[in-house]
């Protein structure tokens, strides 16, 4: 198989999910961990010739200055990142951290107080929106110029933003670009990153509930430039179960009267979601799936509370009150406890592989076959998880005849396919710091 190198640009590159994804990808390349949790590592996706994870070259934006290695170390202390893997990839993380540029916090909400240094927004936010976008584009371009990668995929992993007020104002590309020039104060960071990616032909993945490329003007841009984009709000825990169990009740004609979910979590995302303004988008995406599956008659409520001591671990307790034959009232209760970043990180790697694959084949626009990854999949009204999986399977089946060789499965033997596999980031980072020499 021809070796490919894919640039991966994380917005929120020093956060927990990004740190877990990067550490895991480098661990796969070095053979210290396997590919458990990755959808693309099993049938049917292994039939596709996807770009290899050991060919990912990472960089990104963040508004925090805390080193990537420190974040990964905290995750290892919490039992999330494998300790042996952390030791094996520590120099990789140091080198990658030097490729993290200063980001923007524009319209991220008052709860986002993670910045401990300057941001792209200037002193007191006095830098214009168009200036911020041009700097983001310049950062993408500089990375591409310096590193030998086949394409760049931009993934939004930043904390949830408040919803955009009156998004219809940006329903056309002309309207969006006019808003840029007019220094529109309502444009959020996620959409600025998305525009900067799409206008230069880089695929964009919105892993968060934030607006991202959802705006009509950005959809128009993606279609015009024939660039893949997908989102919103990855489905990793409680909502994943809802989209599996909800259709079960509907299929058996059991009437759900109420479904209440109570969530507690720590970490930075939990702290941000403790703010009502930032929480609004998350509650909408978590609660909306049941309305689509069960209808609007069922009482459907979701709570999210911040519990600092939990760190990256989250717990969801759900109470389902349903009615069966002869109006018999019954209940289902379940508890989901998981490590937020360990659930999310493999899906991030999956999405990079799948949108890079689509981009290589000129399949731009919304990637509807990836609906199973998201709570609010763009342009998809289907929320039944099994039917969403079927959409991905149909996509794979449609591409089987076009594949000239076996699928590009994730390598887990540490060989990386050639001598550069475990040192791929060292090659890309060789000119930045002596620390990267250890990656060779």
Automatic annotation (TrEMBL):
<dbReference type="InterPro" id="IPR013021">
    <property type="entry name" value="Myo-inos-1-P_Synthase_GAPDH"/>
</dbReference>
<dbReference type="InterPro" id="IPR002587">
    <property type="entry name" value="Myo-inos-1-P_Synthase"/>
</dbReference>
<dbReference type="Pfam" id="PF01658">
    <property type="entry name" value="Inos-1-P_synth"/>
</dbReference>
<feature type="domain" description="Myo-inositol-1-phosphate synthase GAPDH-like">
    <location>
        <begin position="237"/>
        <end position="341"/>
    </location>
</feature>
<protein>
    <submittedName>
        <fullName>Inositol-3-phosphate synthase</fullName>
    </submittedName>
</protein>
<feature type="compositionally biased region" description="Acidic residues">
    <location>
        <begin position="428"/>
        <end position="440"/>
    </location>
</feature>
<dbReference type="Pfam" id="PF07994">
    <property type="entry name" value="NAD_binding_5"/>
</dbReference>
<dbReference type="InterPro" id="IPR036291">
    <property type="entry name" value="NAD(P)-bd_dom_sf"/>
</dbReference>
<feature type="region of interest" description="Disordered">
    <location>
        <begin position="401"/>
        <end position="440"/>
    </location>
</feature>
<comment type="similarity">
    <text>Belongs to the myo-inositol 1-phosphate synthase family.</text>
</comment>
């Amino acid at each position: 198989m021809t070796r490919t190198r894919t640039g991966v640009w994380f917005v929120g590159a020093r956060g927990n999910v990004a740190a877990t994804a990067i550490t895991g990808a480098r661990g796969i390349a070095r053979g210290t961990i396997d590919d458990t949790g990755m959808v693309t590592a099993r049938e049917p996706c292994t039939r596709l010739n996807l770009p290899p994870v050991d060919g990912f070259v990472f960089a990104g934006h963040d508004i925090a200055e805390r080193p990537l290695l420190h974040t990964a170390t905290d995750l290892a202390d919490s039992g999330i990142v494998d300790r042996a893997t952390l030791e094996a990839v520590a120099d990789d993380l140091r080198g990658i951290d030097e490729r993290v540029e200063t980001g923007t916090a524009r319209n991220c909400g008052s709860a986002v107080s993670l910045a401990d240094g300057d941001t792209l927004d200037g002193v007191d936010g006095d830098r214009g929106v168009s200036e911020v976008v041009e700097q983001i584009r310049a950062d993408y371009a500089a990375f591409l110029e310096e590193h030998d990668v086949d394409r760049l995929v931009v993934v939004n992993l930043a904390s949830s933003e408040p919803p955009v007020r009156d998004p219809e104002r940006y329903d056309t590309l002309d309207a969006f670009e006019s808003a840029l020039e007019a220094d529109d104060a309502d444009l959020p960071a996620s959409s600025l990153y998305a525009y900067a990616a799409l206008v230069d032909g880089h695929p964009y993945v919105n892993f968060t509930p934030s607006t991202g490329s959802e705006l009509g003007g950005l959809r128009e841009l993606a279609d015009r430039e024939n660039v893949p984009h997908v989102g919103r709000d990855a489905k990793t825990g409680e909502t994943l179960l809802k989209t599996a169990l909800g259709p079960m009740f509907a299929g058996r004609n059991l009437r759900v009267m109420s479904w209440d979910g109570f969530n507690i979590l720590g970490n930075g995302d939990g702290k941000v979601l403790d703010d009502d303004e930032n929480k609004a988008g998350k509650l909408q995406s978590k609660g909306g799936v049941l309305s689509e599956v069960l209808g609007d008659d069922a009482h459907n409520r979701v709570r999210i509370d911040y519990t600092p001591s939990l760190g990256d671990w989250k717990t969801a307790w759900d109470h389902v009150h349903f009615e069966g034959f002869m109006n018999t009232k019954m209940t289902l209760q379940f508890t989901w406890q998981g490590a937020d970043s360990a659930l999310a990180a493999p899906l991030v790697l999956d999405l990079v592989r799948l949108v890079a694959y689509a981009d290589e084949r000129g399949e731009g626009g919304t990637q509807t076959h990836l609906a199973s990854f998201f709570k609010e999949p763009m342009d998809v009204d289907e929320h039944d998880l099994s039917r969403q999986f079927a959409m991905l399977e149909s996509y794979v089946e449609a591409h089987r005849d076009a594949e000239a060789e076996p699928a590009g499965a994730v390598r887990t033997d540490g060989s990386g396919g050639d001598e550069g596999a475990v040192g791929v980031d060292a090659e890309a980072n060789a000119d930045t710091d002596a620390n990267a020499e250890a990656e060779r």
